[in-house]
């Protein structure tokens, strides 16, 4: 359980985030939406502990996030940032194994090897194992990094390891439609195993398809927060994005489809 | 499996290099005799004949120089590999990014300053430690400055890093030039020695005083291997894997510059060892620092020992400065490695 209470973040004199409060519950996929520059990535970086809040608090399992030692946090929580480039020539398998570093001291255990194998299969990157990471396409790099994050949270008996957390910052930006569904579907599955999942997304239709809860930001403030059905309303979205949006319901697709509307 | 095979091969290569280098020179000493003399001096008598002249040359002249080469080569290569991990860039070499010139500037200033202190005139050990402290400070300052300049957000920029190094090199060299133009004859000789690099000053005293400054980094750096691997993902990404990034950066800078600084104090600026050795090894056994760091130390030791043998035998009785030899050996190899890497990336991409 993560609690965000009256969070404020300023860089220099600029207010990036104002007075944001919400909570993230285990078992739910929460999606952060908002136009460019709304502060989505900054919010995720505050929740991951990379940035320190200028005001307000972020707490994880009732402890202030900054009091938890990074090594301990790394066994419970994985973060996929938008930084994929690696300049030293590591192979993909080595990159995915890095996700297991918080779990072993010198040599990977059998569990770590199993985690790497499972995560690579899950993200369809097993065939890239021995390729140098730098030589992959953007979408492939994103899948390998996603596999690394999944390996970090992998556990032998997932049903006995709840309370872990997954943070993804625009994880599907370079992926094709098949792999977008694959990764977000996996995030859903983790939520069903009582993981806390938070994803920054741009694509409203992916949000409509996979989010339980949505946090909608605009210019650093919380415009709306609630269930997907509550937040994904044409009026609210128009206020956020500045263009009219239309909500279409299809007969054989149970989620709303969002398209730009007419004036 | 392949990794332990690489390490074993490198250990054998180092032993062969040491035996070869000890034997080469005006007086040739065959490997069996080298082994026998060394064993004899530690109390093990082997049934191999040698004359006392050979023993004297080996123990008093050759071995200290070979040991110095082994230590400095190992130190520079391990420092190079870890600096490349810190900068997340395979082009970060102590010489190229200005760390060595920072150290040599401080060395030159120290030489001129202590020549005015009579109490230090006869005390070689005190002089050496003072010089060591100075080169360490210079190397530390230079690496912190270059690291700060080349960091843009979450990345280090190759061009900015190389340009920052260029700037620091130019600055240090011009200040050194300024000092040399006012230096007296004896100071001048010392200063030139620092700028070209040479193992010619080798003695057992120097080897012993250098030993801790190289051994400590070589033993401690491999313990940071996993953290350095994770660091290559990015600073925030390493933090999310539970690594104390601030402490890691400080430790790497202190350990790497400790060995670069001590090497500069003992033998002046020797470039390219820290660049070439990790490059070769990445091609053979990969980028994982768990094998890269110890293997770099081993290969660096062999490479510098052989380069020094070349530098003192090729135009005997005169000597080539070793910095020139490593640059001559290093640059073509480096360019070849770059071309190979470029081709590899191209063939995967197409």
From TrEMBL, chain A:
Segments forming domain ABC transporter: 2-244
Job description of the protein: Part of the ABC transporter complex HmuTUV involved in hemin import. Responsible for energy coupling to the transport system.
Source organism (scientific name): Filimonas zeae
Protein name: Hemin import ATP-binding protein HmuV
Pfam families in alphabetical order: ABC_tran
Keyword NADP applies: no
Record-linked SUPFAM superfamilies: P-loop containing nucleoside triphosphate hydrolases
GO MF annotations in UniProt: ATP binding; ATP hydrolysis activity
Superkingdom to which the source organism belongs: Bacteria
CDD domains: ABC_Iron-Siderophores_B12_Hemin
Key words, A-Z: ATP-binding, Nucleotide-binding, Translocase, Transport
Keyword Translocase recorded: yes
Automatic annotation (TrEMBL), chain B:
InterPro entries to which the protein is assigned, alphabetical: ABC_BtuC-like (IPR037294), ABC_transptr_permease_BtuC (IPR000522)
Bilayer topology annotation: Multi-pass membrane protein
Keywords from the UniProt entry: Cell membrane, Membrane, Transmembrane, Transmembrane helix, Transport
Keyword Transcription: no
One of the record's GO molecular function terms: transmembrane transporter activity
Any one of the GO BP annotations: siderophore-iron import into cell
Main subcellular location: membrane
Cellular component, GO, one term: plasma membrane
TM stretches of this protein: 63-84, 96-117, 129-149, 161-179, 191-221, 252-277, 320-339
Compartments where located: Cell membrane
Superkingdom assignment: Bacteria
SUPFAM superfamilies from the UniProt entry: ABC transporter involved in vitamin B12 uptake, BtuC
Keyword Cytoplasm belongs to the record: no
Family the UniProt entry places it in: Belongs to the binding-protein-dependent transport system permease family. FecCD subfamily.
Protein name: ABC transporter permease
């Amino acid at each position: 359980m993560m609690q965000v209470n009256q969070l404020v973040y300023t860089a220099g004199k600029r207010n990036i985030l104002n007075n944001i409060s919400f909570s993230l519950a285990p078992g739910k996929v929460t999606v952060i939406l908002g136009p460019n520059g709304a502060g989505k990535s900054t919010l995720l970086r505050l929740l991951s502990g990379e940035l320190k809040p200028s005001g307000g608090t972020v707490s994880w399992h009732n402890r202030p996030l900054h009091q938890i030692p990074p090594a301990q946090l790394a066994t419970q929580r994985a973060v996929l940032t938008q930084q994929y480039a690696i300049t030293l020539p590591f192979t993909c398998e080595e990159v995915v194994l890095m996700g297991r570093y918080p779990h072993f001291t010198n040599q990977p255990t059998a569990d770590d090897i199993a985690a790497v194998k499972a995560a690579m299969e899950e993200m369809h990157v097993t065939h890239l194992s021995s390729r140098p990471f730098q030589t992959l396409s953007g979408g492939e790099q994103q899948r390998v990094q996603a596999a690394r994050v999944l390996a970090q949270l992998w556990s032998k008996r997932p049903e006995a390891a709840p309370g872990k957390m997954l943070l993804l910052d625009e994880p599907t930006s370079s992926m094709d439609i098949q792999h977008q569904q694959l990764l977000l579907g996996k995030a859903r599955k983790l939520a069903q195993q009582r993981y806390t999942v938070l994803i920054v997304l741009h694509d409203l239709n992916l949000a409509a398809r996979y989010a339980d809860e949505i946090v909608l930001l605009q210019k650093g403030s919380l415009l709306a927060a609630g269930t997907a059905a509550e937040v994904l309303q044409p009026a609210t979205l128009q206020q956020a994005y500045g263009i009219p949006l239309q909500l279409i319901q299809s007969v054989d697709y149970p989620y709303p489809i969002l398209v730009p509307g007419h004036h | 499996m392949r990794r332990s095979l690489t390490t074993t091969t490198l250990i054998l290569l180092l032993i062969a290099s040491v035996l070869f280098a000890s034997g080469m020179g005006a007086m040739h000493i065959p490997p069996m005799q080298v082994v026998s003399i060394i064993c004899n001096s530690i109390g093990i008598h082997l049934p191999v004949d040698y004359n006392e002249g050979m023993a004297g040359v080996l123990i008093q002249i050759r071995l200290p120089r070979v040991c110095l080469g082994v230590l400095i080569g190992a130190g520079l290569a391990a420092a190079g590999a870890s600096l490349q991990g810190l900068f997340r860039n395979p082009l970060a070499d102590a010489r190229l990014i200005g760390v060595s010139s920072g150290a040599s500037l401080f060395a030159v200033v120290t030489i001129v300053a202590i020549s005015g202190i009579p109490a230090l005139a006869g005390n070689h050990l005190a002089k050496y430690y003072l010089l060591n402290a100075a080169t360490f400070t210079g190397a530390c300052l230079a690496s912190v400055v270059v690291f700060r300049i080349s960091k843009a957000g979450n990345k280090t920029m190759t061009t900015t890093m190389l340009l920052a190094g260029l700037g620091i090199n130019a600055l240090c060299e011009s200040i050194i030039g300024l000092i040399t133009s006012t230096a007296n004859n004896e100071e001048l000789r010392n200063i030139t020695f620092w700028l070209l690099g040479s193992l010619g000053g080798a003695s057992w005293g120097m080897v012993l005083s250098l030993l801790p400054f190289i051994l400590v980094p070589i033993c401690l750096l491999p313990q940071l291997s996993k953290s350095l691997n994770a660091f290559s993902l990015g600073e925030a990404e390493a933090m999310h894997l539970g690594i104390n990034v601030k402490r890691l950066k400080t430790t790497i800078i202190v350990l790497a510059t400790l060995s670069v600084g001590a090497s500069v104090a003992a033998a002046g600026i020797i470039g390219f060892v820290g660049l070439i050795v990790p490059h070769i090894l990445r091609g053979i056994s990969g980028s994982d620092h768990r094998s890269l760091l110890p293997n770099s130390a081993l290969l660096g030791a062999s490479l510098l020992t052989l380069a020094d043998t070349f530098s003192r035998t090729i135009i005997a009785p005169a000597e080539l400065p070793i910095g020139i030899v490593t640059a001559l050996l290093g640059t073509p190899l480096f360019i070849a490695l770059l071309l190979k890497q470029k081709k590899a990336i191209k063939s995967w991409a197409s």
